[in-house]
Design brief:
heterodimer; A: alpha/beta; Rossmann fold; eight-stranded mixed β-sheet; four-stranded antiparallel β-sheet; 12 strands; 29% helix; globular; B: 270 residues; 10 helices
Chain lengths: 335, 270
């Protein structure tokens, strides 16, 4: 059995606003990523995907606060650690994060090599600049990036190049888990493909041990990750292998997401895209029952009355609905 | 049907060159095209292929270095500001980034009121104006009562983009130029936006020029597709022709670069 790289148990985090309101953006999320596997997180904007990514690092700064739950990276529980310790011993080494606008993360007044020196010096003192350069050169060679990039300023690089450089910097210390938050959303399809290929290479060349990939593009997730988790209003609404979630989703929301896929394949023009009406609930005062009830086609009176638990099926599948799998399938068949 | 189609916008040998001498960049290189009335046309290409430069020339925001644009059979004349304003009644645009499309100091009401005024509704009574704004917001599934007296930054990206479409609904231009209208918003709102654009075409019969790098989107919405590479159209034709039976290697590459679901996605060809 493969080693579990990242295990999260019932993690809950909240934002505290200026008016002391609590917003639970990550609500009892449990997940597990094994060595050599990748997990995709899907959902529309504002459903807590990026907050989950931040929470997973165990590094909280206001207005984000830790509430409860456990984060275990390769057998080591990091929840409840002091932020300073997390920064020194966890970030970069154990878990690395590529933010959404990674391209803007580079200081325009510094050369690329400077960022690399920064990362290594933060974790290992007594490394000479020469050694660092050598290490960076090797890494860039493995990843197929030109060595000349190291001596360039960020403005001299194209968007795709910057993104790939940021990815390379984030895996310098071979982290156990890499969290990629929409790494390709601002790129065009051709550069997007390069970035995806690079992420795949990282896994194959064992530079990272596992990956969490966040995006709202389901076709992308399907091609990159082994498992997919669908989030809605801070909760997991469906979990399963990529195949299962894409072709055979159980939860009405996951099905709605599937309806918005556009791929240039025969027959697309005959398909009518279905959009999910409405917007996600305001989490300042979330609805009492099912969070999706307002927008659900198959809503029943009891949906709004009681909270809904995640139903575990065999093979690691799970979904959050009061209806049973058979009832839901029947409803889909009848339209 | 082919005979009765009227050409709405035509370009001949349209060229834009930036820079001089050795720094010279030919962004758009002698392109010829005819867009017909009531048609949805897509211009597809990767970043840096000159799509947006072409769009800006069509809008009259950039002067072409060479070539002419013909609007409804006549040579376009936007020499003076007044003429330009007249031209903009016929051609409108939705841009990529909804967050920077609005003036942050103006309330949503004034955005919509400007449109009514531009269409000669300056003398309408207040109730009539509110009625029109409510109708336009209703068209894009927004509630005017919730929007009135708000500022654009209080809306989400999808809502802003929908408000953009509400503007278009009020203005009823002949041509709408949509420059990557869905690339900054998520997949769920994307379907809504596309649907609204299609509905808008049905309702007021306008021509939509859709600029995108996602060939899947182009295939879904458009009647005809132009593929652009290095400032030139390398392939054009109906959507089915171009996307299901691409002739050019460049088109094939673009199609290969989009992640697929039912077919294998080949990652080796990067």
């Amino acid at each position: 059995m493969a080693k579990v790289m990242l295990e999260v148990k019932e993690l809950t985090t909240k934002y505290i606003t200026r008016f002391q309101e609590n917003i639970y953006a990550v609500d009892h999320v449990s997940l597990k990523v094994e060595e050599g596997k990748s997990l995709g997180i899907a959902g529309e904007s504002g459903c807590g995907k990026s907050t989950l990514a931040l929470s997973l690092m165990g590094y909280y700064f206001p207005p984000l606060h830790y509430t409860s739950g456990e984060i275990i990276i390769d057998g080591r529980n990091i929840s409840g650690m002091e932020p300073d310790d997390v920064r020194k011993s966890i970030l970069g080494k154990e878990i690395a994060y590529i933010p959404q606008s990674a391209m803007n993360a580079l200081n325009p007044t510094q050369k690329i090599i400077h960022f690399i020196e920064d990362v290594i010096h933060a974790h290992e003192s007594h490394v000479t600049k020469k050694e660092i350069y050598e290490r960076a050169r090797k890494l860039f060679e493995i990843l197929g990036l030109p060595e000349s990039t190291l001596q360039k300023y960020p403005v001299e690089l194209s968007g795709g190049m910057k993104q790939r450089t940021v990815i390379a910097i984030s895996v310098l210390l071979s982290p156990k888990v890499l969290i990629a938050d929409e790494p390709s959303s601002a790129l065009d399809v051709t550069t997007q493909k390069m970035v995806i290929k690079m992420l795949r290479d990282l896994m194959e060349k064992k530079l990272i041990k596992s990956m969490i990939f966040i995006t709202h593009e389901l076709p992308l997730l399907y091609n990159v990750t082994d498992d997919i988790m669908v989030m809605y209003a801070g909760q997991i609404v469906e979990k399963g292998t990529a195949e299962q979630v894409v072709f055979d989703s159980i939860h009405p929301y996951a099905r709605g997401l599937m309806g918005s896929i556009i791929v240039p394949e025969q027959g697309l023009r005959d398909v009518k895209l279905t959009a999910i009406p409405g917007v996600p609930p305001n989490l300042k005062n979330p609805p009492a029952g099912c969070q999706f009830a307002e927008r659900c086609q198959y809503v029943r009176p009891e949906c709004k009355a009681m909270s809904v638990n995640l139903r575990e099926l065999k093979g690691g599948r799970a979904y959050r609905c009061i209806l049973s799998e058979e009832e839901l399938r029947e409803a889909y068949q009848n339209g | 049907m082919a005979e009765e189609r009227k050409v709405c916008l035509r370009g001949s040998k349209l060229t834009k060159v930036f820079g001089l001498g050795r720094q010279k960049t030919v962004a758009v290189d002698h392109v010829d095209f005819s867009f017909y009335e009531g048609e949805i046309v897509s211009i597809v290409g990767e970043s840096g292929s000159g799509k947006t430069t072409l769009a800006k020339m069509l809008l009259g925001l950039l002067n072409p270095t060479e070539g002419e644009v013909y609007f409804q059979g006549k040579k376009r004349d936007i020499g003076t500001h007044k003429k330009k304003k007249e031209y903009w009644k016929n051609i409108q645009a939705i841009f990529q980034d909804p967050f920077s499309s609005y003036n942050i100091f103006h309330k949503i009401d004034s955005v919509l009121l400007d449109c009514i005024n531009m269409r000669g509704g300056r003398k309408f009574s207040h109730t009539k104006k509110v009625e029109m704004m409510t109708e336009a917001c209703g068209f894009v599934n927004l509630k005017f009562e919730e929007l009135t007296n708000k500022y654009p930054f209080e809306l989400s990206g999808g809502q802003m983009q929908r408000l953009m479409i509400a503007r278009i609904f009020l203005l009823k231009p002949k041509i709408l130029l949509a420059d990557e209208p869905t690339s900054m918003i998520d997949a769920c709102s994307r379907a809504t936006i596309l649907d609204m654009l299609m509905q808008l075409r049905k309702e007021i019969g306008m021509t939509i020029i859709f600029i995108t790098h996602d060939i899947g989107l182009a295939y879904y919405v458009s009647d005809s597709v132009y593929i652009m590479e290095h400032g030139k159209f390398v392939e054009s034709g109906t959507a089915d022709e171009v996307i299901l039976h691409p002739q050019e290697a460049y088109t094939q590459r673009l199609i290969n670069d989009v992640p697929k679901i039912y077919e294998e996605w080949d990652l080796s060809t990067v």
